[in-house]
Specification:
Mean pLDDT: 95
Structural class: mainly beta
Helix content: under 10%
Order of helices and strands: EEEEEEEEEEE
Shape: globular
Largest sheet: 7 strands, mixed
Radius of gyration: 13 Å
Distance between the termini: 40 Å
Strand content: over 45%
Number of strands: 11
Length: 112
């Protein structure tokens, strides 16, 4: 079955960086776009970034454009979200999606 396993909890100060990962199994990784979605307390779920099957095309929400980078390593069936210049408003649970499955979520907290 489809499994997406994400990296663990992250706590960062504002202005710093973090990279979260998501390893996929149970489906043909290269057949699907992948997405990162986040949900902050009391807010609606937000699509953060999308990357196509071979990484040639990406999309970013305006709120993260220029600060976040989505990538994928098809040889390792793994996707990444590099987050730079973190802000307190980036605090959320981040989910990876692909192959009609979802990761378990990674809590990222940005606070001084």
């Amino acid at each position: 079955q489809v499994q997406l396993v994400q990296s663990g909890v992250e706590l960062r100060n504002p202005g710093t960086s973090v990279k979260v990962s998501c390893k996929a199994s149970g489906y043909t990784f290269t057949s699907y776009y992948i997405e990162w979605v986040r949900q902050a307390p009391g807010k609606e779920r937000e699509l953060v970034a999308v990357i196509n099957t071979f990484g040639h095309s990406t999309y970013y929400a305006d709120s993260v454009k220029g600060r976040f980078t989505i990538s994928r390593d098809n040889a390792k069936n793994t996707m990444y979200l590099q987050m730079n210049s973190l802000k307190p408003e980036d605090t959320a649970v981040y989910y990876c999606t692909g192959g009609n499955g979802w990761g378990q979520g990674t809590q990222v907290t940005v606070s001084s």
